[in-house]
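Researcher: Good morning. I'm working through a list of sequences from a screen, and I'd like to move beyond sequence-only analysis. For each chain I'm collecting a predicted structure so we can compare shapes side by side. This is the next one on the list. No need for commentary yet; just the structure.
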Amino acid sequence: MRYHVLACDYDGTLAHDGHVDAPTVRALEQVRATGRILVLVTGRELAELLTVLPHIKLFARVVAENGALLYQPGTGESKLLSPGPPEKLVEALRNREVPISVGHSIVATWRPYDTVLFQTIRDLGLEWHIIFNKNSVMALPSGVNKATGLTRALEDLGILPQQTVGVGDAENDHAFLDMCGCSVAVANALPSVKERADLVMQGSHGAGVVELIEQLLADDLESFRIHIARRHAPA
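Model: Good morning. Structure tokens for this chain:
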């Protein structure tokens, strides 16, 4: 077996309108049945995710808050991977009437409030950065992203990035897809994600993940070995 881990984004990839359909769940169960490991990599806050994903225990690890939090569904243990948001940032955004959601580390809003969010971070002199997820906008400590979170998850599992297949759809997925041995975009992914991915599925959302899983289980993506190797070859 060449690929031991399937790392999936949630919204726009596994989930459509916030929920994962039954065929996608069955496909994920098939992955686990082969001895492979599932990792969820999402921008969502953990408490919110637990309310919308009843099958979360299919995943050996969950990277939440866009890389800031690592959760182990089997034990319920969670580990914060970055500092919490400064109170002065939260207070300033609320004073400026920016609608925000505050997690253990992440501060999230949506367009068009990205401009005010950026200005507030700049005015306060904070070493924080902004990450986009289509219409969602997230602020996190500098250097924290899905790749840093997935790196910690894989270290926990004793798996190399080269042994991982990653699948996603949006801007905040670039970081973790780029570190995987094989990167995959679903059909509804942004053009920039498709351009950088090793493979692009014909199906959208969960149907695209099911399509990927069928190919993974059929031959461990052996049919695409030459194409993937070409994409990773030095220029």
